[in-house]
Amino acid sequence: MVRQLNDINLLIISQPPIFHLNPTSAMSAAIEAGIFRPPRPKKSVLPAITRGSKKRKTEHKIEEISFDDTSRADYLTGFHKRKVARAKLAQAQAIKMARDEKIQMRKQLREERKKELEEHVEAVNRLLKDVEQPQGKWSDDEDETWNGIEEEAPVVEPVDHEEEYVDEDRYTVVTVEEVDVSKEGLSKVAEQDGSDNDEEVPKLVETEEKGKKVWPKKPRKQKFRYETKTERKASRGKQKAGNKAKADARRGNG
């Protein structure tokens, strides 16, 4: 029994002591012993905040965000209104653009017409300059005088003759006679002395028509005239009386 106890004591003394160590304390002990390198310090991804940047950040800090309910409602319910406003604005811009184009086109046309007029005036001046006789080159015959433009002798047409005109569907004979015009009318020169004032003017043109188609005369359109107040009143009275008589007749038949 004593021997067994001695063996147990020897076994306990011979075995090394067992310690339960914390992993952190073990890592610290290993670092202190020089087995592992110390860890590198962690670098921040964000830039370093300096004194000035910190000040600016605090100045532009938004303390509160508030929404206007009326503006929010107008925005949410005003899509159609804004669409109509955009359409009106586009239409006004198109009208203005068309007006500007018209003004520009008219201006261009005026400039072109002005240029054409200037060119025409220059051409006319050149022609006049070419036509005009230069000074110092007058005719040597100074004694010759200009008597003006000579009038041509009038051509006397024959009188008292007949002319014939042939058309597609008619044959016309025109007799030309010399007549005298007075207050009483037309009269022949040969019969001027013996003719009476009440005598009818002789027919100067005789026409023989063959196969002429006679067109019916159109009825003459009556001239429109406004009724007077009395006439309108009378016509209304007649109309009312006629309507009343018709109504009485319908009642009697019913």
UniProtKB/TrEMBL annotation:
Keywords of this entry:
Coiled coil, Nucleus
Q: Where in the cell is it found?
A: Nucleus, Nucleolus
What segment(s) does the record annotate as region Disordered?
A: 133-154, 182-254
Q: Where is the composition biased (Basic residues)?
A: 213-223
Positions in coiled-coil regions: 95-130
List where Basic and acidic residues composition bias occurs: 200-212, 224-234, 245-254
Entry's InterPro entries? Nucleolar_protein_12 (IPR019186)
Q: Name one Pfam family in it.
A: Nop25
> Which GO molecular function, any one, fits this protein according to its record?
rRNA binding
Gene Ontology cellular-component annotations: nucleolus
Acidic residues biased stretches: 140-154
Similarity comment: family membership: Belongs to the RRP17 family.
Q: Which PANTHER family match?
A: NUCLEOLAR PROTEIN 12 (PTHR14577:SF0)
Q: What is this protein called?
A: Ribosomal RNA-processing protein 17
Native organism? Hymenoscyphus albidus
Recite the lineage of the species: Eukaryota, Fungi, Dikarya, Ascomycota, Pezizomycotina
